[in-house]
């Protein structure tokens, strides 16, 4: 009996089993580790050899991992050295809009309940920046707090709450630190990797921190859940 020609044999479907899934996950983890290693370089761009040492793989593996990252513009090579690519800027530009969308429902609930302007503040180095603001709809007057407003993290409840350590008070209050006659209460957003942030309210009259503080903490927890 004639044997079928292998070139014309019916194609076989390839199913990725547990081993294939594990290998794919390992490749993804190594690719992310490589991207992180490039980003962590503070001065001179790392070489292929530097990256191989840092993530514990061979130089050949680094070359293979760089391919997909280069094709998406996340890294670029300058000879043997590797730098972040402009694609990272595009990704970074998408972060804040998505943060606003995710946290706005929780902030709106807080603003309406308290009758004060609610905000999400994110730390950028030594500065704190308001990235989402929701004003209450029913008050006669309230603070107009602009998105993009920056101030030192050491000043104001919003900034100080960003790095509030675990085991400390759950919220922090301030008065007149950033603007005379303005009062704030803020709580840290915890449990979101890579994010230093706080949720707070600001008003033009003293805030009953013992009453409002727990609401701010609850909202910060809701925001953290929405961002995970």
UniProtKB/TrEMBL annotation:
Q: Where is the region Disordered?
A: 1-24
Highest taxon in the source lineage: Bacteria
Q: Enumerate the Pfam families for this protein.
A: HTH_IclR (PF09339)
PROSITE patterns given for it?
A: HTH_ICLR, ICLR_ED
Q: Alphabetically list the UniProt keywords.
A: DNA-binding, Transcription, Transcription regulation
Question: In what residue span(s) does the IclR-ED domain sit?
Answer: 87-228
Any one GO molecular function term: DNA-binding transcription factor activity
InterPro entries given in the database record = GAF-like_dom_sf (IPR029016), HTH_MetabolicPath_Reg (IPR050707), Tscrpt_reg_IclR_C (IPR014757), Tscrpt_reg_IclR_N (IPR005471), WH-like_DNA-bd_sf (IPR036388), WH_DNA-bd_sf (IPR036390)
Gene Ontology annotations of biological process type: negative regulation of DNA-templated transcription
Name all HTH iclR-type domain ranges: 25-88
Q: Which SUPFAM superfamilies match?
A: GAF domain-like (SSF55781), Winged helix' DNA-binding domain (SSF46785)
Q: Which PANTHER family match?
A: HELIX-TURN-HELIX TRANSCRIPTIONAL REGULATOR, ICLR FAMILY, HTH-TYPE TRANSCRIPTIONAL REPRESSOR ALLR
Name of the molecule in the record = MarR family transcriptional regulator
Species whose genome carries this gene: Saccharopolyspora aridisoli
Highest lineage ranks of the organism? Answer: Bacteria, Bacillati, Actinomycetota, Actinomycetes, Pseudonocardiales
């Amino acid at each position: 009996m004639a044997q079928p020609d292998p070139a014309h044999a019916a194609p076989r479907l390839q199913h990725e089993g547990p081993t294939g899934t594990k290998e794919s996950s390992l490749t993804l983890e190594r690719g992310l580790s490589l991207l992180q290693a490039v980003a962590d370089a503070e001065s001179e761009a790392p070489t292929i050899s530097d990256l191989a040492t840092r993530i514990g793989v061979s130089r050949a593996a680094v070359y293979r991992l760089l391919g997909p990252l280069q094709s998406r513009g996340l890294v670029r090579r300058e000879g043997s050295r590797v730098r972040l690519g402009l694609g990272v800027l595009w990704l970074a530009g998408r972060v804040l809009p998505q943060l606003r969308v995710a946290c706005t429902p929780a902030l709106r609930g807080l603003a309406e309940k308290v009758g004060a302007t609610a905000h999400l503040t994110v730390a950028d180095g030594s500065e704190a920046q308001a990235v989402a603001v929701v004003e209450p709809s029913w008050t006669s007057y309230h603070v107009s707090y602009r998105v993009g407003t920056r101030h030192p993290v050491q000043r104001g409840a919003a900034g100080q709450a960003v790095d509030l350590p675990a085991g400390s008070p759950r919220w922090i209050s301030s008065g007149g630190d950033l603007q005379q006659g303005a009062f704030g209460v803020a709580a840290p957003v915890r449990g979101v990797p890579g994010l230093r942030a706080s949720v707070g309210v600001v008003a033009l009259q003293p805030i009953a921190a013992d009453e409002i503080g727990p609401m701010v903490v609850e909202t910060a927890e809701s925001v953290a859940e929405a961002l995970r």
